Amino acid sequence: MNKEKELLDPLPDNPSRIPRSVNIQVHNSCNSKCVMCAYKDTYKKESYNKMSMQLFTKIVDEFSSQGINRFCPSLQCEPFHHPEIFEMIKYLKDKDAVCGITSNGILLNRKITDSIFESGLDILTISLNAVTEDTFKYVYGQSGLDSLIKNLTYLVENKPDHLRMAFSSMLIKQNYDELTSKNHEIFRVLEKNNIRSGMGPIGNHCGGLSNYSEIVVKPEGQSSTEKMYCHDIFEAIYILSSGEVIGCCSDFRKKYILGNIKDQSFAEIWNSDINQQRRHDMMHGNLYDFEPCKDCSQAWNVMKNRGVNRPNSLAIG
């Protein structure tokens, strides 16, 4: 057995031998400071960093060589704010990879949208978290709802057949009624064009939201973390623009750094002693000193489903 194969061997009870998807932060910038995102609390603490094409292609080549072909170049950022995003998508498609992107949609004017259509992008998820101007200003910290709706309508009505699309919404106190009622015209456009629209209550993932108690919504009979599954540590890998690898897409504060892809192989990082131990701990409920999961509503919901209760001293919200 060679060293690489040994590194890729899983724990006996680990359901995932290698990650199913690779999530890449192509730069550490977003054009919005959404109230339900920890980016608003951390962006001032870091200088701008853009991933080079050289590092991006290195990452894609290394993971592709291991048979991993699902990539999402939109980790903790707005991808269409990156000047080389379409070159990155092209490189992924030249590798026969499946490329999925999540965007807030604010930058999607007709020129960018047409470039998306031509790029071969496989999956596009739009985060839509307001459909009235007042709520839009509250959630996104800027105006522009009418322009967004116009651009999204063009996107939906003209998308090519190869592009799979979905809309997702994070429900908070301030947007719950207007989104769940689905009275806005955009929802009729989605239904007419068979575009799926999913909604779910906000959770305090990684314990990173400073304003969680102000925005969390718990409708009658529904927990804010009901029926959620935390797959991050088992099924995905998250690479920042610096090359650092974190254990969760919501770890904006970098509490859980596994290594750096610039000077370590993916196999060394993925199956390091500490990462294997933490996957083992996750499966057996030993999260009390586990950053950042000890403060995460979703991780503790998984443990609750397995009969492990959160200590009162670690309660969230």
TrEMBL record:
The protein's required cofactors: [4Fe-4S] cluster
A single GO molecular function term of this UniProt record: catalytic activity
Keyword Transferase: no
PROSITE patterns found in the cross-reference section: RADICAL_SAM
Protein keywords: 4Fe-4S, Iron, Iron-sulfur, Metal-binding, S-adenosyl-L-methionine
Domain Radical SAM core: 14-244
Pfam families: Radical_SAM, SPASM
Alphabetical list of InterPro entries matching this protein: 4Fe4S-binding_SPASM_dom, AdoMet-like_SPASM_containing, Aldolase_TIM, Radical_SAM_PqqE_MftC-like, rSAM, rSAM_sf
PANTHER family assigned: PQQA PEPTIDE CYCLASE, RADICAL SAM DOMAIN PROTEIN
Protein name: Radical SAM core domain-containing protein
Organism of provenance: marine sediment metagenome
